[in-house]
Structures are given as C-alpha cells and as structure tokens.
UniProtKB/TrEMBL annotation:
Location of this chain's protein in the cell: Secreted
InterPro entries cross-referenced by the UniProt entry: EGF, Fib_collagen_C, Fibrinogen-like_C
Major place of residence: secreted
One Gene Ontology term, aspect cellular component: extracellular region
Disulfide-bond pairs as recorded: 118-135, 137-146
Lineage of the species this protein comes from: Eukaryota, Metazoa, Cnidaria, Anthozoa, Hexacorallia
One Pfam family per UniProt: COLFI
Transmembrane segments: 21-42
Gene Ontology MF terms: extracellular matrix structural constituent
Protein name, per record: Neurexin-4
Length: 358
C-alpha cells in the first residue's frame, strides 16, 4: 500500500463553499479510494454537514448527482462526524486541489463519467452497470453513450413508454450508413404505438387546372428533413406505413377507357394506378366495394360529368410508399361550352408505425 499525500482544496458543489483539506491516500477500494488526511486547516461549519457516520456521508454522496468524493471529518463530542461532498477527485487531475487536513479522511468515487462522455443532452450516472457508469439518454437516444438514435417513433415508444408527442431524431438504418433525421412522433395515435409522421410540401388541397394531356400535371412531393432513401429505410423497420390520397374532380377523369389519365409515382418511380389499399390496376376504392358513380367505371371521377365527385383512399403498400409524384390530366378544355374541367389533389402526411421483425 503506497502512501500519497492529497488535499481536496475546494469542493465545487454549489451548496458547499470551498474548503481546505488534504489526504494521505492508502487503500484503493472497489468504489471508494480511501485516503488518510493530514491537517492543514479545518473548514468552517458552513462548509460541512454533520452525519452519524461515514456510511451516511457515502449515501449523501450517492444521492447527489455531482458528488464524486467526500471528506470525512473526526468524531465530535456529540458522536457525529463532518461530511463534505466534492465534485472533483484527486485521481481525475485535481491533485492541486488536495491539501493536508488533520483527522480527515478523503474518499473518492471512481468516476467513470470522467473518462467516458455521454453524448448530447444525456446524463452520465456514476456507479451503474459493470462499467461503472450509465448514460441516461434523452428519449430517442440509444447506445452506451447515447451516440445513436432509435430507428423509429415506435422504437422510441417501446424504449420509453412515457415518451411524449414531439420532434425526435431517428436513424432507421442504425449506426453509420444514412444520416439520422428529425421527425415528428405521434405517441397517441394507433393505440399509442408511436407513429413516425413525415410532412411534405403538398399537404394542402391543391388546384389542378389547365392540364389536358394525361399526366401532364406533375407535382413532385418533397418530404421534410428526409430523402426517399432514408424514408425507404423507415418503411423497412416499420410494420405499417400509410398515406392518404384524394382527387376531387369536376369533369376530370382518372381514366379514359383504357387510358390512364391520372396516377401517382411510387418512391422508386413506378406508375401507380390504384387509389386505395395496397395494390390494384386502374381502380379506386369504389371499384372494390361496387359503389362507383357509374357502375361500369372503376373510379367516381371517371363518370366525367358536371358534378363535383371525388376518389380517395389510404395507400398502405410499404414497397410503393411514400408517394413521389402526382400526375393528373383532363383539366384543360371544356368538353362542351357550358362546363369546365377542374380537379384538386390532397395528399396526407406519410406515417409509419409498428416495429417490423427484420
Ligand atoms: Ca444511419
Ligand atoms: Ca373531362
């Protein structure tokens, strides 16, 4: 057992004034490094607390997040000892803060938080786990040092059931690879499973007018804070993804006989002609349940009459989503002098939820 002379010159906990103490260190314990102290000066009463024994002083240090060492003073006439909590330790480069103090003992916690830094706004907690520390991540942060991000809002919710609605950073493909990105998490929708919500530039009801040729109206969908490659990864880690779509029409068709007039492009640039569900060719929701405005048509808008009609649905195919582009036509020339041709499209936010078994 080597003897090293030490002084904890100042205790930096805000509620403690600087004190002058010094230790001679001997034994290194598992958690505490024990030092015998030699006197230089006795701290004033304001700088110390009285506790029944050394164990009480240790407990106080454990309870105080910033405490990493303690000075234990001599037994007084009332059978109590002096306990001082410090936020610095000799073994972490604070040798100059150590001075001798008679009848005092210095005990320093082995502070692994000094040698490992938790990332961002996470908190390092001393003494937890076999590593001697634990990074307490903010919601969405993962990894030993909170250096990573959860793959989706559903994973965030599964890791922390108390996580609330708000913006979070996710990294669907995990460490490395694609950049993590910021999303909005709806932690109450879908029975509170955690829904990742991606906004885009075309959520408002938008006029389509003056585009006669099939697909001549083009609207590129730009998703907020994420590109399609990143969103593709989100679909892979999610159990479900969906996006609502609607086309309101006045004399504007989605199909003209066998010709497709309006469609949407999948994320990988494939022409899609179903307007509800996960698959289909040239069909709207009304074709599935037999409610189309004309029984011999597969979309309400295909009736192409001077009535406002609409076709809408919820797209649910993870392979096709999110929608990359909207294409419409038949809004150019009036079929007769007394009627116009117009449409409006409305595309919902892109939502994914549930955790896919990869
Ligand atoms: Ca990544
Ligand atoms: Ca028309």
């Amino acid at each position: 057992m080597s003897n090293i002379e030490l002084v904890m010159l100042s205790s930096r906990l805000s509620r403690m004034a600087p004190s002058r103490e010094l230790a001679i260190c001997g034994v290194t314990a598992f958690v505490f490094i024990v030092c015998s102290l030699l006197a230089v000066g006795i701290p004033t009463d304001a700088e110390r607390e009285k506790v029944p024994n050394e164990g009480s002083c240790r407990v106080k240090c454990y309870m105080e997040p910033d405490c990493v060492s303690i000075n234990v003073g001599p037994l007084d006439s009332r059978g109590e000892i002096t306990c001082e909590l410090n936020d610095a330790t000799w073994e972490n480069g604070h040798e100059s803060d150590m001075k001798e103090l008679v009848n005092y003992t210095y005990l320093g916690i082995e502070n692994h938080c000094h040698s490992h830094s938790c990332i961002g706004s996470s908190t390092c907690q001393v003494g937890f786990t076999s590593k001697g520390f634990r990074c307490k991540c903010r919601p969405g942060g993962v990894g030993d040092f909170c250096e990573g991000a959860a793959t989706s809002c559903s994973e965030i919710k599964s890791l922390d059931n108390s996580a609330r609605d708000g913006d979070y950073v996710i990294d669907p493909d995990g460490e490395g690879g694609l950049q993590m990105f910021r999303v909005s998490c709806d932690m109450t929708d879908k029975n509170g499973v955690g829904v990742t919500v991606i906004s885009h530039n075309s959520e408002n009801r938008t006029l389509v007018d003056g585009y006669e040729k099939s697909g001549s109206y083009k609207r590129d969908i730009k998703y907020m804070r994420a590109n399609l490659t990143q969103l593709t990864e989100l679909t892979k880690v999610s159990l479900h993804c969906e996006q609502s779509i609607k086309y309101e029409c006045y004399n504007s068709r989605l199909h003209n006989g066998n010709t497709t007039v309006g469609w949407w492009m999948s994320r990988d640039d494939t022409k899609m002609t179903y307007w509800d569900g996960a698959s289909g060719i040239n069909q709207c929701a009304c074709a599935v349940n037999g409610s189309c405005a004309r029984s011999d048509r597969r979309c309400n808008c295909d009736k192409d009459d001077s009535e406002w009609r609409f076709d809408s649905g919820l797209l649910t195919n993870k392979i096709h989503l999110p929608v990359k582009q909207l294409r419409f036509g038949d809004t150019g020339v009036a079929r007769n002098a007394t009627s116009n041709e117009t449409g409006y499209h409305t595309l919902g936010k892109f939502r994914c939820y549930g955790i896919a078994q990869l």
